[in-house]
Amino acid sequence: MRKARESQILELLSQCGRMEVSVLAQRLGVSQVTVRKDLDALEERGIPYHDFGIYAAGEKRDYPYASLYACQAVQSGDCDFAIVMCGTGVGVSMAANKMAGIRAACCSDYFSAKYTRAHNDANVLCMGERVVGEGLAIELADVFLSTPFEGGRHAHRVGQIADLERGELAPETK
Question: Is the separation of the CB atoms in 89 and 126 below 8 Å?
Answer without folding.
Answer: yes
